[in-house]
Amino acid sequence: MAVFTPLSDAQVAEFLERFNVGNLRSLKGVPHGTENSTFFVTTERGEWVLTLFEQGEFEDLPFFVDLLDYLDAHDLPVPGPIHDRQGVALQRLAGRPALLFPRMPGAHPSAPNLAQCAALGDALGRMHLVSQRFQGSRANPRDLDWLNRRHLEVLAFLDDADRALMQAEIADYTLAFEGISLPRGAIHGDLFRDNTLYEGDRLGGIIDFYNGCTGELLFDLAIVINDWASDEDGKLNAERYSAILGAYVKHRPLDAYERRLWSTMLRMTALRYWLSRLLVIHVDPPAHDITPHDPARFRLLLGRRLNAEIPPLPA
What we know:
It contains ten helices and nine strands. By secondary structure, the protein is of the alpha+beta class.
């Protein structure tokens, strides 16, 4: 369960009095997630999502609030946080930081079709276009500097081939990105399929911005392609790849440096998740009793990006 701090109906009913959202009708814990406690809340005025933050850098929460407010104001399909009667979004409940959001419509797409891929590419392109003007700032916690530092902690747990691969890849990234300035802005940082909601082919919402930061827009796009356009064997599906990127570049065309470094960024984001999952298993066990994700998926993706041709980028 992803309810690490249980709440009673009475606690939530009292909490809702701070907002203009109506009176509590039902409360249900959400049985998925890995870090925070999440609840579905129903009132006579609608459906809401209540999140209690259990771990992480709590001082970063104002960044997430400001980013979601900004994107919501620009008509992106994100859950803009609900502000209380005094105009404050970030609250405390049961000793934890808390946010209340509108519940976005739809379900996670396990096998996205081409229309869903195009909708995601369109929304991400629009998001990256406006996010370059967002004034907030939070350093990317999983950037190249992080890879250089943290990979040393897992080398002892790898066989000789994987150890050599990881070291060679990071050295290659360091050389490739040296002195290069790529377009930057606010990014989602973790835009996997399970962080989106669809009603049929319509994108109902992009959720879970808690890896959001200020970073290279290409980093965000590469994370999306590695998840959304990869088949079970790790190969890129050319049709899904083209649907996402074709819709994306209509809003934000890629510059010459981004095009040159595209295949490198696909590899780097695959290694980023390979490393983060290795760290959870061997170095930083989760704070709660949950099953860590298997690193093998991203080791497979990295191998595919190294050994298989990357489809061309749209003009």
